[in-house]
Design a protein that fits this description.
Structural class: alpha+beta
Order of helices and strands: HEEEEEEEEEEEEEH
Radius of gyration: 24 Å
Number of helices: 2
Bound molecules: calcium ion
Shape: elongated
Distance between the termini: 11 Å
CATH architecture: Sandwich
CATH superfamily: Galactose-binding domain-like
Largest sheet: 7 strands, mixed
Number of strands: 13
Helix content: 10-25%
Strand content: 35-45%
Length: about 220
């Protein structure tokens, strides 16, 4: 009996290997580094560009996780900023709205990630780091309005709204400054970190063959 063990374990490891393979993860970061002015002109209104677009192409499988980074955000009253992300399938979520306070922020980098440990604070300074998407209530009330061509609400609150969709296509970032006086910019654009799971049917065939081989081996051992 003991001399069969290595064979059994080698079958087992082959099966584990085959289980890992078919769900290979791809993770790729796409960026649009062009600056975004907040707002486009004056002190209130849509940003320029509106939207800022990232075209995602060449990815396989469906999204399992997506994180978004805003690179180099400055604003003299960050509470003015509302940011909406729209995916290629039309899913839409508010990444950041009416957060922070009156304190200036200079060149911070914020990553939005459902799995982050904290949300950006309201009424206090915004800082660099990873945060959950967060939508606070501003002076204009609980409903944030993004002018066309942004889609009308309602808007989601978690990036997991994109899970399960194909990532290829245009992703649009609509930035809006909802109050007069103060202005800002995103100096280095934004990035999308996209992970997908790729199922490979041919590997399932190999897995089936491995299982049949194991069953045959076990029958042989019993004799
Ligand atoms: Ca995440
Ligand atoms: Ca809001
Ligand atoms: Ca708002
Ligand atoms: Ca403003």
């Amino acid at each position: 009996m003991s001399k069969n063990k290595p064979t059994f374990y080698s079958f087992l490891s082959a099966i584990i290997f085959l289980f890992v393979l078919p769900f290979g993860l791809e993770a790729t970061t796409f960026s649009n580094l062009d600056p975004i002015s907040i707002p486009a002109s004056g002190t209130e209104g849509i940003a320029n560009p509106y939207p800022s677009i990232i075209n995602v192409s060449g990815m396989n499988g469906a999204i399992t996780d997506i994180n978004v980074t805003i690179n180099g955000l400055s604003h003299t009253f960050p509470d003015d900023i509302d940011i909406l992300l729209v995916g290629p399938g039309g899913q839409k979520i508010i990444l950041l709205s009416d957060a922070g306070g009156p304190g200036d922020v200079v060149n911070i980098t914020m990553t939005f990630d459902d799995e982050a440990a904290s949300s950006p604070l309201n009424g206090q300074f915004l800082v660099s780091g990873s945060f959950t998407p967060s939508n606070y209530t501003g002076n204009g009330g609980p409903i944030d309005v993004f002018p066309a061509p942004a889609p009308v609400g309602s808007y989601g609150s978690l990036l997991s709204i994109f899970d399960g969709i194909a990532p290829n296509g245009n992703w649009s970032l609509f930035v809006f400054d909802d109050e007069g006086q103060d202005v800002g910019r995103i100096a280095n654009g934004w990035s999308l970190e996209i992970a997908t799971a790729v199922a490979e049917p041919s590997t399932f065939v190999l897995l089936g063959a491995g299982l049949l081989g194991l069953a045959a081996r076990k029958r042989k051992d019993k004799r």
